[in-house]
Amino acid sequence: MDPNFYEKSLYNYKEELKLIGVVVDFEGATKVFANFFKERASNRSITKQIVLSLLSCYRKLQESTHKFPADLKTCIREVKWLRTCHCDYYRSPKDCILFGSEWESIFPISRLPLIDDSDNGYGKGIHEYKKELKSMGVVLDFKDGVNFVAGGLRFHDINLITPSNALSLLKCIRLLMQKKDYTFPENFSKELSRDWLKTNDGYRPPNKCILFDSKWGECLNCTDGPFIDEKFYGSEIASYKEELKAIGVIVEVENGCQLIASQLGSHTELSKIVRIYDYLSKFKWEPKSEDRKIWIPNGSHKGVWVSPEDCVISDKSELFSLQLTILDKYYDHNLFFFSSAFQVKNSPSIEDYCKLWKVWENSGHSLSHDQCWKFWSYIIRHSSSKEEKSFLDELEKVPTANSGCNDIVLLNKHDVFVADDLQLKDLFEQCSAQPIFVWYPQPSMPVLPRTKLLEVFQKIGVRTISESVKKEEVSITKDAENEQVVSKDALIGKGLIKLILGFLAHPSLKMDEKERHKAVEGLLNATVFETVEPINVSYNLSLSSGKTLNVKASRMVRWDKDSSKIFTQKIDESKGPGNLIERATYFSQVISEGVLWEHGEHIDTLSELLKLAFLLDFNEEAVAFLMKSKNLQIFLEDEKFISSTFPSD
């Protein structure tokens, strides 16, 4: 009722007014106002003037002696009557924030229910009623409104997020974490998973970031991985270690291996990559399939990434520089890490050797003796492995070499032969334009014994020359006048056997008693034939190409080991000393080759001794002196053997 219209005397009629229904007491007035307020709020018709008037009245009531009715207080707190900034949306006081300086940093990245203090809203004047609004439930302090931040977080433009925005958000997270059993809203977690944290490698989501500190500095530089950019955020960012960890940022140095490793592919600086490998090694990191690459530098800032399967730690043979990447050429202290984490082989495997030989087979290039020696030394050392057997089955070519030639050529294994007969070897080497005998090292070495190597070649399918040729005897008739059995004592006597056994007993040959005696038994068991005609032999050797090699030889002496016969041409004394030295040469060469065919490197030495002794008719005193001068001796078991062989002497 308008007191100005009715004048003050109106107050004298309270009881009468009450009887006709006019509300005259405070309690009744609050009930009427509450109904009026609810109706206006439901129609969104509470104007700026009403709000400011309400707040002014509320202040006066708070200062008066009147007790504020609980029902009205509840109504004001719960009814949605305060207009916020977003789309004229009305909220109850407890769901509103009155903007202040604390909200400036968080406001750009969160949709907050701020009371509309614009000129079109309540205006700045509403800030005069902070106390009243807070009493009604409006949030003023940042610490009281962090739930609104969590519910309204929005990153509109990542590039516009300032350091103060990010730090304010982390402060909010800290306050939320202090609440018992609190869990982040789904939308909040989803928004946090976007690329909003600035690192040295651009913007990234929290779970792809690392917080750098002194412990990380012991292993890496801050530019070695996606470390949060402290220059951008300032040192204060480090104080939010627990909050960053809670949203997924890696803070413990031992937990960053996978993330650091996943970034390796973006680096090209060798010193940086070495630091990262050291760090990964320290914490025993094991790569996932997509991370199984190793950096091979070419200078300090260039290089390529290669697969561990194409690498070995070292290659002492120096054969694989074109087929494999040898890591010890590029790294030193990281080698164990490559072996344990990437399962890089310590050295080339037999499979690698097999592939290398295939490359050589297909290249058509010749090999050096050093290459061949290193290759076959390895194969011999692993000759009992299953892989070696598979390799031998697939081998198509074997190494060959001509006498006096430094290059080794790989040829079809069916056209290459083991020179088990050195006479045939000499003959065919002279008539063939290409090498036909399998290579073996000269001299034979403990790591690559000739006998073992020849066994391997024979497993491959290489035949011996003696079993491969077709032999035709020429010019030795069966006529007794031309071919006569003679006493072998004149040719194969005690002096010859003694000298041979003394030579075979030398430590360099490493021949035991049985081997020595077996070597001379073939000589002792042979029948000696003498002929006046030249001793000619024809040999035919068929190759896989269809070509046949034919050789003929004329010798004064021939030892046919298969038939256990020694043929010797009768001496023509009219030809003088020349005929004698020729006979001595052929005899000593044939005997040496027959006895030492498995020890070819010693044939020439024995041949020279036998030649000299032959010219001296194998005189026992001369042989004894000759042996002594060459530091040769025979042992008791050899003496017994000689005595049993020549009992009459």
From TrEMBL:
Q: Which InterPro entries match?
A: Auxin_embryo_med (IPR052957)
The superkingdom of the source organism is Eukaryota
Protein name according to UniProt: Uncharacterized protein
Q: What is the protein's species of origin?
A: Cannabis sativa
